[in-house]
Specification:
The structure is a single chain. By secondary structure, this protein is an alpha+beta fold. The protein contains twelve helices and 15 strands. The protein folds into two domains: 123 residues, D-Maltodextrin-Binding Protein, domain 2 (3-Layer(aba) Sandwich), CATH 3.40.190.10; 216 residues, Dipeptide-binding Protein, Domain 3 (Dipeptide-binding Protein, domain 3, Roll), CATH 3.10.105. 30% of the residues lie in helices and 20% in strands. Strands 8-7-9-6-10 form a five-stranded mixed β-sheet, with helices on both faces. A three-stranded antiparallel β-sheet has the order 1-2-3, with no helix packed on it. Strands 4-11-5 form a three-stranded antiparallel β-sheet. The chain is globular, with a radius of gyration of 22 Å.
Length: 363
């Protein structure tokens, strides 16, 4: 028996595989049963979706065609939107929210369904981040409330735990903001670890401008407790190459974003390698951190049928994450979409996916 079977059925989308021996399957257009069919796909450029005449609900979709374009640079999203080049832009940087709202022709849609969070990868392979007290000091030196208010323009909430929502059985209210901003506490932890003045490196990507800004706020506060933080920013492709390498490209810290925190924890832990628990659980943390009790909780929670015991396993795993900090949680990061007010009927489901079948244009 699989205790999270309903989440599996609810979460994953399935496509027909005509020939499972076909090695070129991923290079061909998918076969599905949705309201639109894919008629053209140019990787890294765009996908064209046309109305599917055989869709079971004959009343929808309303649109004949949707083109979804890929724009790699975050700073180009809003100019494309407000010039009329596109009707809507997804994953708009929070810094543009006020700009969009100020124009009567456009609106902002806040989408929290995906349970996305902003966090920091910690390379525990490199001293002194192999010491828990140093990681905790970094967490206490992070002014999350200021970052939520000033960097994310009030659309985010500060968090210390990845499981910030009561929607997940791993949730514990006392862990959500367990590390309030406290530089004195951070100094004490560094002293306990026997660590004096140190220099750490932080890497981020151009596609995530908020990460660099919050790192600069962090940099300023860390300097007050004897930690020099050097920040490097790369184009997205290079950044991902660094962040997904086992040694983090030699960096101590990296900006990151994680989703699925509101899903069943079994799905979260099986799809987020940065929170990997160990070989028994199926995913090993790629940056050197390991805790035997954490691995045990994550592994047992995946198969335990008693819902009370499952919750206990995952809540303990949550507690270990907040104490050990292989990842440092920063804020919630809901998706922000900028839309022409001519767009009607767009919605986001409980998983954060956008639904287009009821969309129409008021022109």
């Amino acid at each position: 028996p699989v205790p999270f079977i309903y989440d599996i059925l609810d979460y994953w989308y399935a496509i027909l595989i005509p020939d499972k021996e076909d090695g070129n399957l991923t290079k061909t257009l998918a076969v599905g049963t949705g309201p639109f069919k894919m008629t053209e796909w140019k990787p890294k450029e765009f996908v064209r979706l046309e109305k599917f005449a055989e869709y079971y609900n004959k009343d929808v979709p309303y649109l004949d065609e949707i083109i979804i374009r890929r724009l790699d640079q975050a700073e180009t999203l809003v100019p494309n939107l407000m010039s009329g080049a596109v009707d809507g832009a997804g994953k708009v940087p929070a810094s543009y929210v006020d700009t969009i709202k100020a124009d009567e022709n456009y609106a902002v849609m806040i989408n929290e369904g995906s349970g996305n969070i902003g966090n920091v990868i910690v390379n525990t392979n490199l001293a002194p981040l192999d010491k828990k007290e140093v990681r905790q000091a970094l967490s206490y030196a992070l002014d999350r409330q200021l970052i939520a208010d000033e960097v994310y323009y009030g659309i985010s909430e500060p968090i210390t735990s990845p499981f910030y929502s009561p929607a997940t059985i791993a949730y514990r209210e006392d862990l959500v903001n367990a590390h309030e901003f406290n530089l004195d506490k951070a100094k004490e932890l560094l002293a306990t670890a026997g660590v004096g003045d140190i220099t750490l490196t932080f890497v981020t990507g151009t596609g995530f401008p908020e990460w660099k800004i919050y790192a600069q706020i962090w940099q300023s506060d860390l300097a007050k407790i004897g930690i020099t933080l050097k920040i490097d920013e790369f184009e997205n492709a290079k950044f991902y190459e660094i962040a997904q390498s086992a040694d983090l490209g030699g960096y101590n810290l990296a900006g990151w974003g994680t989703g699925r925190t509101k899903r069943d924890p079994a799905i979260f832990f099986q799809t987020q390698p940065q929170y990997g628990a160990g070989e028994k659980s199926g995913i090993v943390n790629p940056y050197g951190w390991y805790n035997a009790e954490y691995e045990d909780c994550v592994t047992k929670g995946r198969t335990e049928l008693d819902p009370v015991k499952r919750a206990e396993y995952y809540q303990r795993a949550n507690e270990i994450l907040v104490d050990e900090l292989p990842m440092i949680q920063v804020v919630t990061t809901p998706y922000v979409a900028g839309l022409s007010k001519e767009i009607k009927g767009l919605y986001a489901d409980l998983l954060g996916f956008y639904g287009f079948e009821q969309v129409w244009l008021d022109r």
